[in-house]
Amino acid sequence: MALILDIYRANSSKDRRYILLENAREKLETIRLMLRLTKDLKQITLDGFVSLNEKIENISKQLVGWQRTSEKT
Fold first, then answer.
1. Whole-model pTM?
2. Distances from the Cα of 41 to the Cαs of 23, 31, 35, 57, 59, in angstroms?
3. pLDDT tens digit string along 4-51?
4. Where are the alpha helices (DSSP H) in the chain?
5. Which of 5, 17, 36, 43 is deepest in the core (most CB within 10 A)?
């Protein structure tokens, strides 16, 4: 939920966009670590882990691209 709120705030703000996107990326990495822990504790299958990790990676790429665009403006 906090990740989605950071993305929303970044979309709504022009002056703090970079900081908000950086916060969103940090939260996404936290989610990635929790997902890894879930897999290590055998609470999720390998297929489920791979699928969710791919989705996290796609979101990460989008945030990086948006952050680079934000730096230019």
1. 0.82
2. 27, 15, 10, 21, 24
3. 998 888 888 877 788 888 999 999 999 999 999 999 999 999 999 999
4. 2-12, 17-40, 46-72
5. 17
CA distances from 29 to 15, 18, 25 (A): 24, 17, 6
d(CA 66, CA 51): 23
DSSP state, residue 45? -
> pLDDT band at residue 60, thresholds of 50, 70 and 90?
very high
How far is Cα 27 from Cα 50, in angstroms, rounded to an integer? 19
